[in-house]
Amino acid sequence: MQLIIEDGYQLVDGGVCAAAGFVANGCNCGLNPDKNKNDLGMVFCGQECHAAAVYTTNKVKAAPVRVTKEHLTATGGRARAIIVNSKNANAATADGMEKARRMCGLAADRLEIPPEEVLVASTGVIGQTLPIKPVEDHIGQLVSGLSAENHEEAATAIMTTDTVKKEVAVSFELDGKVCRLGGMAKGSGMIHPDMATTLNFITTDAAVSSAMLQKALDDAVKVTYNCLSVDGDTSTNDMVCILASGMAGNAEIAAEGDEYQTFYRALYLVLLNLTRMLAADGEGASKFLECSCTGAPDQETAVIVAKSVICSPLVKSAMFGRDANCGRILCAIGYAKAEFDTDSVSVTLASAAGEVEVCHDGNGIAFSEELASRILAEDDIYILVNLNQGSASAKAWGCDLTYDYVKINADYRS
Q1: What is d(CA 289, CA 331) in angstroms, rounded to the nearest whole number?
Q2: How many angstroms separate the CA atoms of 299 and 284, rounded?
Q3: Nearest CA to 214 among 196, 197, 229, 202?
Q4: Concatenated DSSP letters for 242-309?
Q5: CA distance 219 to 264
Q6: Ramachandran assignment for 362, one of left (phi > 0), alpha (psi -120 to 50 degrees), beta (any other)
Q7: Residue stretches of the chain with pLDDT short of 50
Q8: For helices 299-311 and 326-334, what crossing angle results, to 10°?
Q9: Nearest 5°: phi and psi at 386?
């Protein structure tokens, strides 16, 4: 799967540390019994940053989500550090808030900043008490190893059932200054729209107000992470945080306009690529799926239809089985909660091996099963839905549903 980039933007190395002023680190503190796997991470900026975040819509919100929200409210949208652990979600436990605040306090003491300027996140098993002593014992090691070169250590510290780390960064210009924006993400299972179930940490050296960061993040999430689904389960720990150091030296973006749009596209590109990486690394996945809905009367309808197809267990199973069953796709289009005429819908399946139309004017049509099988044998599958009722379009991303998904989740706690 290739990364997507646009004119005026360049892919750069460095992930969450690509932007000026940011350092990171990760280590194994003992939450993960495999000493070769990091389970504690940190991102830090030497100066105060404007910040914004988006959180899970699950009513059962993990303690770190609640504490992060409290801190950003208390500081008026400012932060300098993020501390995160894997293997334990610190969710649905009686002492969760105490443990989340303790993690912030430990980081703040070592970094010599107020605890309210520390954001906190956790991922892992829900409903189990988080042991805090491993964090206490390794916070010094974590902080002392902070550097721009250790972004990969942080990216691996947030992995749970992920099979690969996920990092993206871009450079672009604002006000004649070169700016950078990058991030890291985790997520493999329990992923579904409505603030897709992942942890995502984004940094930039562009100068942007907290209000404009929040607007850009809200808008970008709607057409990236919220159009992602692996298995239909929205977790308790979802979070996207963005910190802006302003160290690129551009005039601060405090209102909408051309400079804001340039910044927004940079954020969109990073979130888009991270979303696609998350979809491709779904638990047990053997195929990356992208559904494009074109010809819609409006973008909202296009989003709803594309997500309906991507979320369908039957469609996902058919793609795993290399079965070009247009009935599964039409069924998912039909129960999408939007108003449109199904009699003009067409569906095409595509991949690097070619493409084949399987539905026209709302009806299944004859096609080469041999060609369809070759198309669906590829790793990246594109489901092209055309409603033929307008000019709006949208995309959604996911993966196939395999036997391995059940194996992974049947004994997840072990």
Answers
A1: 17
A2: 31
A3: 202
A4: EEE--TT-PPPB-SSSHHHHHHHHHHHHHHHHHHHHHHHT-TT-S-EEEEEEEEESSHHHHHHHHHHH
A5: 9
A6: left
A7: 193, 196
A8: 130
A9: -120, 115
Q: Which residues are catalytic, by number?
A: 197
Eight-state DSSP code of residue 377: T
| Measured distance CA(221)–CA(226) in Å, rounded | 6
Helices (H), 312-402: 313-320, 326-334, 369-376
Burial of 244 (0-12, 13-18, 19+ CB in 10 A): buried
pLDDT digits (tens, 9 = 90+) for 139-186: 999 999 999 999 999 999 999 878 889 999 999 999 999 999 999 998
158 contacts 199 by C-beta, under 8 angstroms = yes
Radius of gyration of the chain (CA): 22
67, 84 in Cβ contact below 8 A?
no
Tell me if 364 sits within 8 A of 328, measured CB to CB: no
Place of tokens 């909660």: 337
pLDDT of residue 365: 97
Inter-residue contact 354 to 381 (CB < 8 Å): no
The residue whose two tokens read 């070769």 is 36
Beta bridge partners of 171: 10, 180
Residue 17 carries which side chain, given as an amino acid letter? Answer: C
Contact 310, 275 (CB under 8 A): no
Q: Which two tokens stand for residue 48?
A: 């105060």
Q: Which of 111, 112, 83 lies closest to 99, judged by CA?
A: 83
CB 346 within 8 A of CB 357: yes
